[in-house]
Design brief:
By secondary structure, the chain is α+β, with helices and mostly antiparallel strands. 28% of the residues lie in helices and 28% in strands. The chain is built from two helices and five strands. The chain has a five-stranded mixed β-sheet, covered by helices on one side. The radius of gyration is 20 Å and the shape is elongated.
Length: 100
């Protein structure tokens, strides 16, 4: 099997800034290889929480030409808890309005 180069991007977003690095890697490269080549392997948030085009994957998954590797930050709040909280607040507001 011959090794050729493919183009990939590595994306990592901070709260105030997005980093998007374009790389040329071997067609045998993995997600972890691309992250290491981008110099992002030492991020404290990097606990295997990665994806390719918004689909979760593993660090050992292989890459294809044009892939965008995304490093996800930990969530600040659980989206399900937030939704439930908003629903309870809305229900209380509707009940209060109905009783007036």
């Amino acid at each position: 099997m011959s090794v050729s180069l493919i183009d990939v991007e590595v994306a990592y977003a901070l709260a105030t800034k997005q980093n998007l690095l374009r790389l040329r890697v071997a067609n045998t490269a993995t997600v972890g290889d691309a992250i290491a080549l981008a110099g992002l392997a030492d991020l404290p948030e990097l606990d295997g929480n990665v994806g390719i085009f918004s689909r979760r994957c593993q660090l050992g998954d292989s890459l294809e030409n044009g892939d965008r590797v995304e490093i996800y930050r930990p969530l600040i709040a659980d989206p399900m808890v937030q939704r439930r909280t908003r629903a309870v607040v809305a229900k209380k507001a509707a009940l209060k309005k109905a009783l007036q």
